[in-house]
Amino acid sequence: MTQIDELNCPFRREIRGEGDDEYATCDFLHRLTDAPRELCNVHRSACELCVQHPPLSPSALNPVLPSLILDVCANAFPDASPDTVGGVLQSWAKSAVATDGVGMLATTNHGCDCVLICEGQHAESDLRIAIDSALAQERVQAIVHVIANGADSFAVADAFRNRPNIRVHRHPQRTSAWQCLHAVLEHLETQWVALLVPGLQNMADRLCHAIDQMETEGGEIFAAAIRRSTETGIETLASTEDNPQLGTLVIRRGTLADLGGWHLTRPIQLSPKPAIVEKGADAGSAELWSVDTKTLRKLMPPPSTQQTADFVSRKALAAGNAPDFVSRKALAAGNAPDLVSRKALAAGNAPLPADSALLLTIAGHAQEKSPDPFFADVVLPFRNALDQVAQSLDALLAQTGADVVIHLVDDWSSDDVSGLFDRYRDHPNIRFYRNRENLGPFASFNNIALRAETGFIAVQDADDISLPHRIARSVQLLLQTGADMIGSRSELFGEVDLVPLVAHDCETDQHGVTRYYRNSRYPKRHLSGYFLENPTLVMRVDTFRSLGGYGDFGGGPRNRTGVDTDFQLRAHFARAAITVTRDALVRYRVHGQSATQHSESGFGSQANAESHAEVRRRFERYCTGTFDPRWFGALGQHAGLTERIDP
């Protein structure tokens, strides 16, 4: 009979001490892997952690076992092929470790806008191949936008007009492919955009594979290989950062808007992160890109004022400092005139081949449109530090292109706030409140969200400064992309010894001045951390309310740390549409009394550890099935503790 010790694990065998350490042979690992028993030794600390979790099952994943299995298989079967037991177990264990020990049980369906540019030379049969294979995608509801580029393409495009999930758009005069794409941006209906090419058949898993990869890794641009038959066999045309196969591109809608949209004409660089490369008989190779403005390698060439460049910016054209003509050799294969007017090129009137035109930058073909006025509520809770509050207020009142309603909330300050209130009391766009007790910024925000006067609401920390275009730019992108919330980059300032420690990156300008930044980014599927910079957050009011608002971790310092991380994760797993801009829209003050640095709530504190344990617990609930996000929010929980006052 097997003797079970105090850990109550039936698989612990041959328990023995080695110095101050205790080891046991794990009979479960031995039976599962068929590895020699001497390779299945486990330290007591791993056993203690293992028995705290349920065993492997279809509905639960013990977070310790994958690491143990991976270690045993690596030692017992170092050269195992993928079709052997050892190879299968190693592959599964690597995947489980990468997902941070959390099983993803829910299969996700996606929506994707597919853009197909139709020109006069295209046959209806070629369009049908691309359209039918897009509409037949697995786990993706495809909406196909057929863009008839030129009057000679109207007839062939109209053949698809009355089919479900197909939208036909007409452009009487032929224009560049990027201008076609931008003209349809305002008609897109999902957060993903895929390019279709006439005559190119899409594999059934093309879109779900691309979107799954980008959601897993937080990527923004996906390209894959094209396989085609030749007289000598099957030829694979791989995608690289310099030469993507355009018919395989899938791009986040938010990335398109942020990089060019309708208003920007700045240079853009699209570059690869450490690439995810898949090699297989079916997949060929695939690349996953994110936008990196620091690297010089480019997926798409940016506008430039250099004499030797193939493209120039509109600003350079307007300034008259660009040559009148530019060589097209880099754009076309020689079937077009050697020279084309830069004016015609910038206007989109040059008849470029579709593939060459697609390599023009998004920014170079941004559509000029007059922005509508933007309105938003801004919530500014504060406790003491009145000089910093005044700076934040002044920056909000100086917003350009936006009309803001500022909700100024005194969160039980010990300082006399009457002077601050008197200074701003006559401003028509400021509402004044006082909390009956110290609630903290998140509960204060919840209470004001119930009183919002516009369709959008922004976070404003009392010690930070919004740059003049913050609200207009954020609301503009939310409207352009149909997203529910947006985060931006923030520029750090404050205590010089702390700033580099909390920065994500830095940039040094030509004068030797170094600036430090923190960046919002798209979430990665399996990671339980913070991905949007909360001080930059702007949301739709309806979205915030439907998510139940920020949560409550039990009051006190625990409600000042981790609550924003939980809210972001909840939004992500509730399928809220999240977008990101690389513009720095907020100046973030770094100092020892901030929530992340304070001894009571900052890194290393007891409150921080307890709050992040709660974040982890909730994360495991969010990613293993469907849920109502309001169960985890605290909207309205403290509503009676914030009262509006007339100073």
TrEMBL record:
Q: Would I find Calcium among this entry's keywords?
A: no
Protein name from the UniProt record: Putative glycosyltransferase EpsE
Q: What is its EC number?
A: 2.4.-.-
Q: Which Pfam families match?
A: Glycos_transf_2
EC primary class = transferase
Q: Where is the Glycosyltransferase 2-like domain?
A: 378-488
Protein species of origin? Stieleria varia
**Keyword match Glycosyltransferase:** yes
Keywords from the UniProt entry = Glycosyltransferase, Transferase
Which family is it part of? Belongs to the glycosyltransferase 2 family.
- Extract one GO molecular function annotation from the record: glycosyltransferase activity
Signal peptide start and end residues: none
